[in-house]
Design brief:
Blueprint (H helix, E strand, L loop, with lengths): L3 H26 L8 E14 L9 E13 L8 E12 L10 E11 L1 H4 L4 H9 L13 H8 L4 E7 L5 E2 L12 E10 L5 E2 L6 E2 L2 E2 L2 E2 L17 H5 L16
Parallel strand pairs: 1-11
Antiparallel strand pairs: 1-2, 2-5, 2-6, 3-4, 3-7, 7-8, 9-10
Amino acid sequence: MHSALVRVQNVFGFFTTVAFCTAIIVALSVTVIPQAPSASIELRNVQVVKGRPHYHSPKKEEYAHIRFDLDADLTSLFNWNTKQLFVWISATYPSRKNASEPPSQAIIWDAIINSESQTNPSTPFTLYSYLTTPSKPPPKTRRPSKSKQAEVELAPGLIKLKNSKPKYQITDISGQLAGTANVTLELGWNVQPWVGALTWTMAEGSSWGRWKGIKGGRSKAFDMPPLKVKGVNQEAVKGSGRPEKAAEASPVLK
């Protein structure tokens, strides 16, 4: 009964119980932290081209190239239990075959934002290395550009993109995109904690306790331009009525 093996089992069982209870407390403690993310997305340029969107595409099809501006403040999503944040922008448009079907969605941009504890982890080993390693003068490097400095100074969760290129092209299962109406750009995210469940995007106006849904995060609706003609800039999307040029992305007024 009091053998070494039994004592090791008891200690290990007590350790796992304490670790499990601590993880539950940490996972539930973040629910008391207020969350109020906000974002603004604006269309800059859109054009539809027919070709092979990828080098491995078996056939030519229509695909869209969308440029956008993004100004988001997701800092409230970061807390002591946040490991990293996965953010994406999707283009949503109604189905071309049947209006009763769910709308189609295609991701055009995404990014992974690490927390401070993930970027600069603090462990006993790193602390020991810091105390025992002799200090050295920093190497001479070139002064970063203003854009690089802005990226470094931004806190985790702050995103500022101007006239950004998409990471992915938009294609449709029908192979046709030109003239698609009522297209919107939407911001989404997935919070990946150290312990606990994953949390996803909360729609605007929704709430759960002290967590509020995103404020904004959706662009004005627009139409895809005709095929093989360049899109237009932001002014054409903000204007009222249908533009004179056939290539312009006209707004959808609601």
